[in-house]
């Protein structure tokens, strides 16, 4: 029995996706739920799996193809008969292509369209290129590395009428090396949303600084006991999430959004936490953060971070959010102006903690200081509210006992 593998239903507002690398090839035996290929959309990566056990008889869409929901990807033969690759019209005949024929080698189904084109354009022999993909598959990066390291072109069957150029590496008008790599879908989406934010909102940023010593002392005192009791480490983010929620309750406009000519006040607190992933910056959501304990928040952040690193975040993990926190301090950032995550009205930027001289009680002392930045949409949030909101976060962090006692 032949079973069709099709593109699964895509998330709302997503019309198409790009196929990544096939994990199986025609003739391979597959089991139920075996991963076949990953489908990258501008929000998440979907895993397409085998719905029946059998033999992968045919692959209909190559690596890198742009596909839509319901489109046929592959066929599985549940009777387990090994498939033989179909002969194309131009491959019919008794005389096989020679290995040195770069054009026929580039047409191999084991190579993605981008790789085939790059190999053909540079007259390379795939046999001379070391593949780093699954099962030794040649990736585009492998070809570019081969060219960069002075890889030789494929031998020709007849002498050329003109000498070949010294190198086939892509260069600019002055002969300097270039590399052109297509943007991933998530990077395209990030670029689009950031541009929309800049063009569609009146963004202003206000700054303040916070003395992190009280939080650091509290964390140092209880971190071992906290980890033993809750099976998760006590980080700084749970303090910032709680301080943010408290401030949002005091200044509801910062938790609101503009919809046409209306202001939508959110009676809940879904906090987005920007994290870095192999695919770029993603913002998973901590839902109903006001109902969560410090331990709950830390566990959720760890869970979402793990999913992000393994490209396992679902649509629900990334959808919604009423406010965002981003921490550039983990990369060493001292100060920045974060960009809004539409349709949200504000975003909080955390930065590096650095010991600085400050005046406390009339004396100069050394304290661990962090700069905070709040970017906000001035169409809905006035300066007074933005500054007061940031001061509220500062005060909560500098006296965490009040925050813990909800004072």
Features:
Chloramphenicol Acetyltransferase, 2 domains, seven-stranded mixed beta sheet, 407 residues, alpha+beta, four-stranded antiparallel beta sheet, single chain, 23% strand, elongated, OB fold (Dihydrolipoamide Acetyltransferase, E2P)
What does this structure look like?
28% of the residues lie in helices and 23% in strands. With 407 residues, the protein is of the alpha+beta class. The strands form 5 sheets. Strands 9, 12, 15, 16, 17, 18 and 19 form a 7-stranded mixed beta sheet that branches. Helix 6 packs across helix 9 (383-398). It is elongated. The chain starts with a strand and ends with a helix.
Task: Chart the SSEs and their pairings.
Layout: E1 2-6, E2 17-19, E3 29-30, E4 35-40, E5 45-49, E6 54-59, E7 66-67, E8 72-77, H1 102-106, H2 113-121, H3 140-148, H4 185-200, E9 203-211, H5 213-230, H6 237-250, E10 257-259, E11 262-264, E12 271-273, E13 275-277, E14 280-282, E15 285-286, H7 294-309, H8 315-318, E16 323-327, E17 346-350, E18 353-360, E19 363-377, H9 383-398, H10 400-404
Parallel strand pairs: 12-16, 16-17
Antiparallel strand pairs: 1-8, 2-4, 2-7, 3-6, 4-5, 6-8, 9-19, 10-11, 12-15, 13-14, 17-19, 18-19
